Amino acid sequence: MDKIHRYERMAALTKLLTASPNRIFTLSHFCDLFGAAKSTMSEDIDILKDVLARYELGKLDTVTGAAGGVRFRPSMGRAEATRMIGTLCRELNQPSRLLAGGFLYLSDILSTPSVVRAMGVILADQFYESAPDFVLTMETKGIPVALMTADALGVPLVIARRVSNVYEGSAVNINYVTGSSGHIETMSLSRRAVKAGQRALIVDDFIKGGGTARGMIDLMDEFSVHVVGTAFVMATASPEQKRIQGEKSLMVMDAHPDNPETLLVKPAAWLND
User: Using CA atoms, how far apart are residues 214 and 158, in angstroms rounded to an integer?
Assistant: First the structure.
């Protein structure tokens, strides 16, 4: 094998780590791949770690122990995250976006890959230490941001349905009360989708009264799955008391449903902490 130069190793190393977020690679794996000594690979990893930290492009962690190694965790500097969400808020502060029932038109934003990828990174960064086994969302509008959050965490995405599908096998169905209208709705999840004892992170696009989120938490109780957190793209300022507590949203919307001119969308307070 021809000698591999450091710049070649660094380029390949960066690609391999960033393409598999939160996955632990052993040092031996890279030594075998590049035909390099452990001391050489350790130096390369230290260089890459410093560069990523300097430009706030993510975190490169060294994991100790028998199953240890190195992993890349996507992240965004707080200043950049606040700037990005602030830009979104200015775009969303258009009275024409306010929909009947006090909801906000977000479909164009949630269909832009670069935007939802950034949202997923910001949300995932808040839950790395919680170590969820999967991300749970409710069909359908929350799927893009939930998928990007799952990608950053390096875990699968699980989707709860309103109606069970025959191709998913037997399912658990629960009834829940929507937080906004108080109507009874049904939520379904295949019995094969998750396992007892796992840890779930709930991610969705919008929270108003918190009824759907409460339903997803109750659904996880049916599977004996622990919910480590709930995260949303948008939360409404009213009602202040929701059916869940401790949720984390990227933006907060306040508006009188009958007066679009009162619409105000702003970054969530925790982004400025």
Answer: 16
